[in-house]
């Protein structure tokens, strides 16, 4: 009798492609064959591979790899949306990051993708009321990847974080679907208030490197935030904001800024890089 996991793998085009890429990588670079086998080829499904990879990266003297792997396996087994989101994130990175040429790259090498998947497991724990375990994963993600996402934050699917260094997403922040952001982005608060205090980022938003979005404000769907901007007020949908403090400088320039990744501002004084 064929195991259910094997049947799933046979009809899963994303996982099939990942396995094929891993096999080709082994042939091209035999010295990394052990890593390709242990992280990809040894596993029958993407869920199992992700659980193994996250446990390997986040384990420490305080929490063993085996325990973390069991936690991740439990999360993926009880919440199918986690795997759906992981696939959407993977495709987003592949389609939007010009440095990504294979599906195996985000799983093996890109800390933005890995950190988001670890956050998703931590968020699942948070919703189960297992807050201390969720905090532990948040801590390890921050220590290992340099990305600090509170486990209570709500993050949609199809997320691409390029370079992914010094990302901060606060407790009450909400990030929509198909959002792209670059390094050193902060979605933070403006004081010591305990209530809803963090930004709400709409769908299809592009956030440039070093941008700071502060307070319980709304960034409308399909808008662009220029690099280095400090956003303190609501951003209308399909618009571009820039500056300190940020102001509307024009339209977004395209239907899906987060997908096109166009970071040039077409201002009257000439193009200006985000």
> What is the domain tally?
2
Considering the protein shown, what is the CATH homologous superfamily of the largest domain? serine acetyltransferase, domain 1
Secondary structure: helix percent: 40-55%
CATH class of the largest domain: Mainly Alpha
Low-pLDDT parts are 1-9, 267-274
Largest β sheet strand count, sense and barrel closure: 6 strands, mixed
Number of helices: 10
Beta-strand fraction estimate: 15-25%
CATH topology call of the largest domain? serine acetyltransferase, domain 1
What's the mean pLDDT score? 91
Characterize the overall form.
globular
Give the structural class: alpha/beta
Distance between the termini: 56 Å
Total strands: 17
CATH architecture of the largest domain: Orthogonal Bundle
Order of helices and strands: HHHHHHHHHEEEEEEEEEEEEEEEHEE
Strand order of the largest sheet: 3-6-9-12-14-15
Protein name: Serine acetyltransferase
Domain Serine acetyltransferase N-terminal: 14-118
Family: Belongs to the transferase hexapeptide repeat family.
Keywords: Acyltransferase, Amino-acid biosynthesis, Repeat, Transferase
Short description, anyone?
The chain is α/β, with parallel strands linked by helices. Helices cover about 45% and strands about 15% of the residues. The strands form four sheets. A six-stranded mixed beta sheet has the order 3-6-9-12-14-15. Strands 1-4-7-10-13 form a five-stranded parallel beta sheet. Strands 2-5-8-11 form a four-stranded parallel beta sheet, with no helix packed on it.
């Amino acid at each position: 009798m064929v195991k259910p996991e094997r049947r799933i793998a046979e009809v899963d085009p994303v996982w099939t492609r990942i396995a094929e890429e891993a096999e080709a990588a082994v042939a091209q670079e035999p010295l990394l064959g052990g890593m390709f086998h242990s992280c990809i080829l040894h596993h029958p499904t993407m869920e199992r591979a992700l659980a193994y990879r996250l446990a390997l990266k986040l384990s420490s003297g305080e929490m063993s790899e085996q325990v973390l792997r069991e936690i991740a396996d439990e999360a993926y087994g009880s919440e199918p949306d986690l795997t759906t989101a992981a696939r959407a994130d993977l495709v987003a990175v592949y389609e939007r990051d010009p440095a990504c040429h294979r599906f195996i790259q985000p799983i093996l090498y890109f800390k933005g993708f890995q950190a988001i998947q670890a956050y998703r497991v931590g968020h699942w724990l948070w919703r189960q009321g297992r807050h201390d375990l969720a905090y532990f994963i948040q801590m390890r993600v921050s220590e290992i990847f340099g990305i600090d996402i509170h486990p209570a934050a709500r993050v949609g699917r199809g997320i691409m974080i390029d370079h992914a260094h010094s990302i901060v997403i606060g407790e009450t922040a909400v990030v929509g679907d198909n959002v792209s952001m670059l390094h050193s982005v902060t979605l933070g608060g403006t004081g010591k208030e305990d209530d809803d205090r963090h930004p709400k980022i709409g769908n299809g938003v592009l956030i440039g490197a070093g941008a700071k979005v502060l307070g319980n404000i709304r960034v409308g769907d399909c808008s662009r935030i220029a690099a280095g901007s400090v956003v303190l007020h609501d951003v209308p949908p399909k618009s571009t904001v820039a500056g300190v403090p940020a102001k509307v400088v024009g339209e977004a320039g395209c239907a899906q800024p987060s997908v096109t990744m166009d970071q040039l501002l077409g201002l009257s004084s000439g193009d200006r890089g985000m």
